[in-house]
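We emphasize that the prediction below concerns an isolated chain of 166 residues; any contacts that depend on oligomerization or on bound cofactors are therefore not represented. The input was used exactly as deposited, without trimming of termini.
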Amino acid sequence: MEAQVGLLIDYEYCTGCQSCEVTCKEEHGYPVGKWGIHVLEEGPWEIEDGKGVFNYNYVPVPTDLCDLCADRTGKGREPMCVHHCLANVITYGRIEDLAKKAAAKGKQVLWVPQYKPLEAKGEFVATKKNRPAEVAAPVEIESNDAWSTAAHRRSDDDHFELGLVE
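Result of the prediction step, given as a token string:
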């Protein structure tokens, strides 16, 4: 059986430069709005009120388009995001080896991307059979001359019956 591989991302030192995003988009030709890896920004928010200690992280997240640069890794090269990471925080390797490395330090994420998830998992099938699809909350939309919208729930909505809104 072939060893499973993935990415270990040390987000403690990620600077949010997005070089992994850019190089992945260029390598695979993804259009605007699609990524093989996408840097998410989490924060800033104060951890301890008045202490000046903040939570602020950048976390590169492989998407379902990520195939770990199968053409490159098949030739013994590392994925483009790893090769071009300016902070050197993304590591490619065998899951067993990466897990050992992750256990030695916090603020790391171990990713095992699943390329083409619908082929791997199949189509989504709802398991709740007791609610028909047409039970969704009715919403009325109105607009004015300026660009804005407002949504109003109907008075026969469950929220009114439960006293959650007036």
